[in-house]
Amino acid sequence: MSASGAAARRPAGCALIVLAGGRSTRWAGQDKTAQRLAGRTVLAHAVAEALDGAAHATPGPVVVVAPADHPARAEVDRLHPDICWTLERPAGGGPVAGLAAGLEALPHEQTPPVVVLVAGDMPSTAAAVRRLLGALARCGAEVDAVVGCDQDGVRQPLLGAYRRRPLSEVVIASPPRGRSMRAVLGELTVREVEISQREGLDLDTPHTLDVARRVLTDVDFQPIERTP
User: Fold this and answer.
1) Which residue from 21, 49, 189, 193 has the fewest beta carbons nearer than 10 Å?
2) Per the structure, how many domains does the chain have?
3) Strand 62-65 vs strand 40-41: parallel, antiparallel, or unpaired?
C-alpha cells in the first residue's frame, strides 16, 4: 500500500466525550458511574477504555459530562493530563443535552474532525472504539457516523465515532431537551459495527455489576461491519 493510501485509512484524530450526567433512576439515587468494579470506579473504566481505544488516533481533547464534584473525579483526572468537566443544562436533561454540553466544551479551534462518544457506565469499550474509528476512516465523507450494534441488531448511539461537523449541526438544530439519541442518528448517515455483549455492557441496574464481573472475561467474539 502506498503512503497516501495508508494515510487515507488511518483513523483521524479524535476528541472523546464521555457522558456520565444521568439520573441513575434504576439505582435508587446512587450514581452508577461511581460504583466500584475490579478495583476502580465505573467512570474511570469508561474513560480509560475510551482512551485506550483511541490511542492509535491522533490524541485530542477529552470531555467528561458529569457533576464537578463527581466521586471519581480525582481518579479520572489521573488518566489524562487535560480532562475538561462540564454538565448538561438542565442537569439530568438526557444524553442529547449531555452531548450538546460536551460539544460546546470542546476547544473548536483545536478540535479534531472526529468525536468518539461513550456512555460513562460502559466499562469495556476499548476494542470497539478501535474498530469504530477504523471503520469510519474507511468510509467516505458521506458517512457521518459509525455506531456499535449489539447482537440483537440494536444500535448503541452512546458507543460511536462521529464526524464532528455534521453531528454538531444536528445537535444544535433544535433544543436538546426531550430529544433522543436515536432521533439524532435518524438525521445522520450511519454505518454499524457489531459489538459483543462485553463491549456493549452498560450498568443500567445494580444487577449488571454482577453481570459485568462475568462478561468482562468473554473473549469469544468475531465482529462484523454492517451497511444498512
Assistant:
1) 189
2) 1
3) unpaired
CB 148 within 8 A of CB 117: no
What dihedral angle (degrees, nearest 10) is formed by the CA atoms of 79, 119, 114, 199? Answer: 90
CATH code assigned at 102:
3.90.550.10
> Going by DSSP bridges, is the β-strand pair 83-86/62-65 parallel, antiparallel, or unpaired?
parallel
Q: For residue range 115-156, what is the model confidence (pLDDT) as tens digits?
A: 999 999 999 999 999 999 999 999 999 999 999 999 899 999
Angle between the N-to-C axes of helices 164-171 and 95-105, in degrees from 0 to 180, rounded to the nearest 10: 120
Task: State the Cα–Cα distance between residues 23 and 125, nearest whole angstrom.
Answer: 22
Strand order across the beta sheet in which 83-86 lies: 83-86, 62-65, 14-19, 114-119, 155-163, 145-149, 190-194, 225-226
- Give the Cα separation of 170 and 154 in Å (integer): 21
